[in-house]
């Protein structure tokens, strides 16, 4: 659509959008154009290396991911939004990670699934935009379509893509969700964020499975988040020991990032821990039957795993846990009625305790 808005009108509307976003509880907002030429080249090179593993959706839609106007015809601007989600101090996260009998869940998944909450906020923002431009074309995306959200956020000035391939903001670290509004309104664009990683290699050095194979380059096939969430089948045996007690995702690269000293705790009640997922033992979670799993993970991102893969992940963590009667008994009790996938991981876990636990047969 052709607009007759003058530069001063567009500048005023741009300022209003940012004010509205703040009033809606969004942590930050920026605006960019649709040129993702550099990001497209990097994506194609990454796919060519096979680093996406089983995530076929990363290549399924061709250039729609890197050319916004192909996904949503008429798009000329993207409004990129951040929403902080860190539910507790990093010291608490580190205590859980350091206790091999407790389950570590990525901080983003401790509370309710963020998709609906962020989508509602962005949809309200669209409604406010249409009070000024009632025929505006606007489409909200929250991890719901082929969108290069991090390159768009960097171009919109919300932060830079760090060496761990996550977005980092100078004043907020990296504990936030991203969402977008595609629009045809020619709003004024923000300046792209500049890289401030410098010589730091903390994220690369700390990765348990060495998934960050070079600065700004992630082999997802080695990443614990991929292994515990995206991977449908068997977790490669040579990576299981390095997973430790991480049963859903991994935050290590963000926890060590110096910029996360500026991270801000969330103000959203929905993102606070539920079902004791911030303190539960591995054995307690492994004992959930399917009905309990479905009930405790209602409204959670974890439910997408399904009960079988949830147990698969915990079985690996139990294999890495200190040997004791409770761990071995929990594994043995699930051995006979397990699916082939789960049984394989339980057998592996029991083998880790064979030498040090005389009661294991």
From TrEMBL:
<dbReference type="GO" id="GO:0051539">
    <property type="term" value="F:4 iron, 4 sulfur cluster binding"/>
</dbReference>
<feature type="domain" description="4Fe-4S ferredoxin-type">
    <location>
        <begin position="184"/>
        <end position="217"/>
    </location>
</feature>
<keyword id="KW-0846">Cobalamin</keyword>
<dbReference type="GO" id="GO:0031419">
    <property type="term" value="F:cobalamin binding"/>
</dbReference>
<dbReference type="InterPro" id="IPR004453">
    <property type="entry name" value="QueG"/>
</dbReference>
<feature type="binding site">
    <location>
        <position position="207"/>
    </location>
    <ligand>
        <name>[4Fe-4S] cluster 2</name>
    </ligand>
</feature>
<feature type="binding site">
    <location>
        <position position="203"/>
    </location>
    <ligand>
        <name>[4Fe-4S] cluster 1</name>
    </ligand>
</feature>
<dbReference type="GO" id="GO:0008616">
    <property type="term" value="P:tRNA queuosine(34) biosynthetic process"/>
</dbReference>
<keyword id="KW-0560">Oxidoreductase</keyword>
<dbReference type="GO" id="GO:0046872">
    <property type="term" value="F:metal ion binding"/>
</dbReference>
<feature type="active site" description="Proton donor">
    <location>
        <position position="143"/>
    </location>
</feature>
<feature type="binding site">
    <location>
        <position position="197"/>
    </location>
    <ligand>
        <name>[4Fe-4S] cluster 1</name>
    </ligand>
</feature>
<keyword id="KW-0408">Iron</keyword>
<dbReference type="InterPro" id="IPR017896">
    <property type="entry name" value="4Fe4S_Fe-S-bd"/>
</dbReference>
<comment type="similarity">
    <text>Belongs to the QueG family.</text>
</comment>
<keyword id="KW-0479">Metal-binding</keyword>
<dbReference type="InterPro" id="IPR013542">
    <property type="entry name" value="QueG_DUF1730"/>
</dbReference>
<keyword id="KW-0411">Iron-sulfur</keyword>
<feature type="binding site">
    <location>
        <position position="200"/>
    </location>
    <ligand>
        <name>[4Fe-4S] cluster 1</name>
    </ligand>
</feature>
<keyword id="KW-0819">tRNA processing</keyword>
<keyword id="KW-0671">Queuosine biosynthesis</keyword>
<feature type="binding site">
    <location>
        <position position="225"/>
    </location>
    <ligand>
        <name>cob(II)alamin</name>
    </ligand>
</feature>
<feature type="binding site">
    <location>
        <position position="143"/>
    </location>
    <ligand>
        <name>cob(II)alamin</name>
    </ligand>
</feature>
<dbReference type="Pfam" id="PF08331">
    <property type="entry name" value="QueG_DUF1730"/>
</dbReference>
<feature type="binding site">
    <location>
        <position position="253"/>
    </location>
    <ligand>
        <name>[4Fe-4S] cluster 2</name>
    </ligand>
</feature>
<feature type="binding site">
    <location>
        <position position="178"/>
    </location>
    <ligand>
        <name>cob(II)alamin</name>
    </ligand>
</feature>
<keyword id="KW-0170">Cobalt</keyword>
<feature type="binding site">
    <location>
        <position position="65"/>
    </location>
    <ligand>
        <name>cob(II)alamin</name>
    </ligand>
</feature>
<feature type="binding site">
    <location>
        <position position="257"/>
    </location>
    <ligand>
        <name>[4Fe-4S] cluster 1</name>
    </ligand>
</feature>
<protein>
    <recommendedName>
        <fullName>Epoxyqueuosine reductase</fullName>
        <ecNumber>1.17.99.6</ecNumber>
    </recommendedName>
</protein>
<feature type="binding site">
    <location>
        <position position="223"/>
    </location>
    <ligand>
        <name>[4Fe-4S] cluster 2</name>
    </ligand>
</feature>
<feature type="binding site">
    <location>
        <position position="250"/>
    </location>
    <ligand>
        <name>[4Fe-4S] cluster 2</name>
    </ligand>
</feature>
<comment type="pathway">
    <text>tRNA modification; tRNA-queuosine biosynthesis.</text>
</comment>
<comment type="subunit">
    <text>Monomer.</text>
</comment>
<feature type="binding site">
    <location>
        <begin position="250"/>
        <end position="251"/>
    </location>
    <ligand>
        <name>cob(II)alamin</name>
    </ligand>
</feature>
<dbReference type="GO" id="GO:0005737">
    <property type="term" value="C:cytoplasm"/>
</dbReference>
<dbReference type="Pfam" id="PF13484">
    <property type="entry name" value="Fer4_16"/>
</dbReference>
<keyword id="KW-0004">4Fe-4S</keyword>
<comment type="function">
    <text>Catalyzes the conversion of epoxyqueuosine (oQ) to queuosine (Q), which is a hypermodified base found in the wobble positions of tRNA(Asp), tRNA(Asn), tRNA(His) and tRNA(Tyr).</text>
</comment>
<dbReference type="GO" id="GO:0052693">
    <property type="term" value="F:epoxyqueuosine reductase activity"/>
</dbReference>
<keyword id="KW-0963">Cytoplasm</keyword>
<feature type="binding site">
    <location>
        <position position="167"/>
    </location>
    <ligand>
        <name>cob(II)alamin</name>
    </ligand>
</feature>
